[in-house]
Amino acid sequence: MNRILPSFALSLVACIAVAQVDPNATVVTINGEAVRGGEYFKRMEMLPNVSRRVGNNSLNFPPGFLTIELLITEKLVFQLAKQKGVYPSDAEVQAELNSILTENKTFLNDALLAGQSKEDVEHQIRYQLAQFKIATFGINLTDQEIDTFYRENPQVFTVPKRAKLSIIAVTDEATKSKVDNELSSGKAFGDVAAKFSEDISKANKGDFGTVPIATLPEGARNAINATKIGQMTAWVVTPGATTQVKFMLHDVLPEEKTPLDAKVRKQIRRQLMLQRGQQKNNVAKEMAEMREKANIQIANKAFADMYKKFLEESKAGG
């Protein structure tokens, strides 16, 4: 199925912070000279030329300030969720975590190995749930609406015809001749790919994976469609390119319709709620009002001045 909404698990990966480091622990060693955690964090806090996209502008601030700004935003989001009566409960957070673990059983262990506690993960889930519930405040969907969307958008829930392929790519005629000679002599396609291919897949004997045929260039599509399973295609040349490729067709998987199960229903519900929420709720305006009214005191004067500048530039950037 073509995903209509990224899973929370994927977006959580981007949200999980850097693992805590002991100020005295060695972070990196250069020619025997160690950099300790304290130096690492001090340098990172004021690292220059770090930007964040706000509206139409790219604003440059050091990571230490951007972290403070992120913490302010999180607190304001939670406060707004409480004002609206949609602050995520512990049960909702646990249900979302269980849902993520159903799809990715190692998700929590991976986070722990990265230095995150279970509480850190739950915090990020709660934050994303709060954002979602604010964005979709007042929006409700019936099961019939979900059924209708599924029925009227079959292309969204159809896995296209796919081919399981290996590839050999070359950029000159001499290498192409060597490949042809070795394949003609009975050498295995994977071994020849590992020896001569100039594609990154050579490290895995040319394994190209299972890909939708329709997404490949026309020449490759035609060559694959003209080839039987277990055989090699002719050389394919993309117009205007110097690289020539040959595929081994291992298997062809037919087009499939994804069933309307509980997982798909949840994805449809979230997608439609977000779409309707964008029309009904002006979250940007609500957050701007929260910032305007908030009593925010930043101990670091430099960062306090930066926050004033940040607010000004954010308004200017829309």
Description:
This protein has 318 residues and is an alpha+beta fold. It contains 13 helices and ten strands. The protein has helices at 8-15, 37-45, 63-84, 90-103, 107-113, 118-135, 143-152, 173-184, 189-196, 218-225, 262-280, 283-293, 301-316, and strands at 26-30, 33-36, 51-54, 57-60, 158-159, 162-170, 207-212, 236-237, 244-253, 256-257. The strands form four sheets. The chain has a four-stranded antiparallel sheet with strand order 7-6-9-8, sandwiched between helices. Strands 1-2 form a two-stranded antiparallel sheet. A hairpin with a 2-residue loop joins strand 3 (51-54) and strand 4 (57-60). Helix 4 (90-103) crosses helix 6 (118-135). The chain starts with 7 loop residues before the first helix and ends with a helix. Mean pLDDT is 89; it is low at 1-18.
Write the topology of this structure.
Elements: H1 8-15, E1 26-30, E2 33-36, H2 37-45, E3 51-54, E4 57-60, H3 63-84, H4 90-103, H5 107-113, H6 118-135, H7 143-152, E5 158-159, E6 162-170, H8 173-184, H9 189-196, E7 207-212, H10 218-225, E8 236-237, E9 244-253, E10 256-257, H11 262-280, H12 283-293, H13 301-316
Antiparallel strand pairs: 1-2, 3-4, 5-10, 6-7, 6-9, 8-9
Mean pLDDT: 89
Helix vs. strand class: alpha+beta
Q: Based on CA inertia axes, which overall geometry fits? A: extended
Annotation field: number of helices: 13
Series of secondary-structure elements, N-terminal to C-terminal: HEEHEEHHHHHEEHHEHEEEHHH
Distance between the termini: 35 Å
Alpha-carbon Rg, integer: 26 Å
Largest beta-sheet details: 4 strands, antiparallel
Low-pLDDT windows of residues:
1-18
> Can you list the strand order of the major beta sheet?
7-6-9-8
Binned strand content: 15-25%
* Number of strand elements: 10
